[in-house]
Write a structure and sequence with these properties.
Chains A, B, C, D, E: This is Riboflavin synthase. Chains A, B, C, D, E: Its EC number is 2.5.1.9. Chains A, B, C, D, E: Pathway: Cofactor biosynthesis; riboflavin biosynthesis; riboflavin from 2-hydroxy-3-oxobutyl phosphate and 5-amino-6-(D-ribitylamino)uracil: step 2/2. The structure is a homopentamer of 154-residue chains. The first copy, chain A, is an alpha/beta fold and 154 residues long. In chain A, helix 1 links the parallel strand 1 and strand 2. In chain A, helix 2 runs parallel beside helix 3. The longest helix of chain A is centred in the C-terminal third of the chain and has 25 residues. Chain A is globular. At the A-C interface, helix 3, strand 4 and helix 4 of A face helix 1, strand 2, helix 2, helix 3 and helix 4 of C.
């Protein structure tokens, strides 16, 4: 049985934590999921770290980022933190972020969030359950999450 | 009994440390609070680290950031530092910052500071006392601190 | 026998992992290669770390970076992470990245990716197999990967 | 007896190390000061680390930063480094920096440097000798170093 | 006998490694120098770390940085890495970088590289052999490497 961690935020405007939970359960029927909800993106790294301390084999974090330059600096520091958690634990923490300035219309943001959370939850299951070769068939294929695939350049 | 740490600065133009202390006491009547006042934001990470060394179960830091690009780089390095403290200790350090360019009128800055410090002090109590599920009901709800909630996208 | 790690992504639009594998095999006929495919660049550091945990003497990572400022921040956090992996393990992780805005025409991007992945795979073999003096003859020669060499200034 | 470390640079255009040494001696008459002079700001973190290795209870670093964007990136990496030293040692490293573009006239730069180095040397003594409550009376008072105090917002 | 490490790159357009080696030998006649040549600046931190693992008392790294914003982000991540190496080992790693946009004419770039590499190699010898007070006489004197000294402000 595999243990997955899901971390989401109250700042987010879409419940991506629920999407990730549902997707993981559907993809891996021998698993346990632990969910951790924090205020904002800068709280994601410690929650991921704690979930790994408590036994998670891999974690998905789901963050929502505002439009200002300051929000982008918060994104940068969060990204560095999430990478450090992974380096120190040798566990994957798949980092899903939706940026409020990715689209003007709320429907588009919802669609991006759902697509990105779903695809990356599947990526997490593959990496945790099936290991380092699980995504080999897609290497260099220009896959995108939240958008249409860009495709391979011939 | 829970132990909370509160770190604030002499650079700040609002006494957010007092606000945080009052709020924590009101929210959690079986707690001890340790306060640490430092000059500016770049001194926050070590103070948070020391409070955790001394037994705090979680910390709130309250920083005030100036208007220049340099202040923003200081914000960035501080954010990275606060995230590293959390990763190394597996304890929450909730990071409240008010940026002097968030509003033109002093009254608005005061209001932002009070709202943000209060709401995040409550977040800290919930996470420390009630754990990883304490904010689950607000996941994806678009909560904001310092501003009106943005709300969930339908 | 030397052990090399190769990490590539599904985000990439060129299969640089295959290029690196082929090049390493051609350069070093007494070696074992372990490949790890991850979704995007921010997943590279933990994969490199795990390959080193599993015995790799050196790793090459092959990332593809988008055009937006956000992609550049992801590049920055990934670079910091890859450098931290190296510092903590004292092993080389040669970091190949192709940026989608390096060229307008897809053919040029493909050519850059092939040239850069090939040359850096050779660099990795030299450093891992032949050590700290293996590139001495090229010191200060203005070598470039992905572009024509800039050359030494007289 | 307390042990203070003072780190300054040959890049600086004002001898802030002397100012800091004089101020610390005046503020704390039962102390030992160790001085470390390095070339530029990026050398400050290791010097602070070494002084703490050698027994300093707290350190003040005094850096001078040029006008270009590159200088600002050096400031950023130095700031991250100084914060990491503090986190790893649980000791204060008060970071004084003067930026050459803070003022046009040399007299103003000298005045800023003197004021900032003096006030932060006093801050260091208070934190090291008198502890976490020593600056409590100034919390939220809008103190500034190098400039007139901004004051508390009512 | 002191042990110095010299790290340079094949990306550089001036052989600064040779300049540093010659200068160190001339300054310190009881020393051993170990040279490490890597492809580019992002490979400098691990090489410095390995040289220290192998016994170097101090290291000089000699990097060449391109003109684009991306090159500057690579500079930033490298700088953070070099500072981390120093913090983790408590050894000096003097970081010489020449930026291709510092001058338009190649002759000027060569002159800057020679001056900077020479002066910082001397700085390294002083710090490693003569310790924390060796540069005290130059504190606050506005020394520059690569350019004329800026001088002390009166």
């Amino acid at each position: 049985m595999r243990k997955y961690g899901v971390v989401d935020t109250t700042f987010s405007r879409v419940n991506m934590g629920d999407i990730a939970e549902r997707t993981i359960k559907k993809e891996d029927n021998d698993c346990e999921i632990k969910r951790y909800t924090v205020p904002g993106i800068k709280d994601l790294p410690v929650a991921a770290k704690k979930l790994i301390d408590w036994g998670s084999d891999g974690v998905i974090t789901l963050g929502w980022v505002g439009r200002t330059q300051l929000d982008k600096y918060s994104y940068l520091s969060t990204s560095i933190g999430l990478i450090m958690v992974q380096i120190l634990t040798s566990k994957h923490v798949i980092d899903v972020t939706v940026h409020e300035d990715e689209a003007e219309h709320p429907d588009d943001l919802v669609r991006i969030a759902e697509d990105r959370a779903t695809k990356h939850a599947i990526n997490l299951v593959r990496l945790v359950r099936d290991g380092e070769s699980s995504l080999r068939g897609y290497a260099g294929k220009g896959l995108r999450q939240g958008y249409r695939n860009a495709g391979e350049l011939s």
